[in-house]
Design a protein that fits this description.
Radius of gyration: 13 Å
Distance between the termini: 24 Å
Order of helices and strands: HEEH
Largest sheet: 2 strands, antiparallel
Strand order of the largest sheet: 1-2
Shape: globular
Length: 81
């Protein structure tokens, strides 16, 4: 079984309940970086480089910027008791 960090993020990862989302603060930091980037299309919220909707992509721990401005976050998984 492959680790989510061993492969790039996929759009359907947003719907995978086994993949935790990043903390809101990290998502906001990523979005801030994107919004300051010349490759960000503010009208659609997309990246010209990868074509992704950044409001979704920035939530995924296994996502990264194609220009190397932000990267994969290791999320600690906690088992509920």
């Amino acid at each position: 079984m492959s680790n989510i960090y061993s492969r790039p993020a996929r759009p359907w990862d947003l719907f995978n309940k086994n993949i935790e989302k990043v903390l809101p603060q990290i998502r906001q930091e990523r979005m801030s970086i994107c919004k300051d980037c010349p490759e960000f299309i503010s009208l659609t919220g997309q990246c010209k480089e990868c074509g992704c909707l950044m409001s979704a992509k920035t939530k995924l721990p296994n996502a990264s910027c194609p220009l190397g401005k932000w990267g994969i976050i290791r999320v600690e998984f906690q088992k509920e008791e």
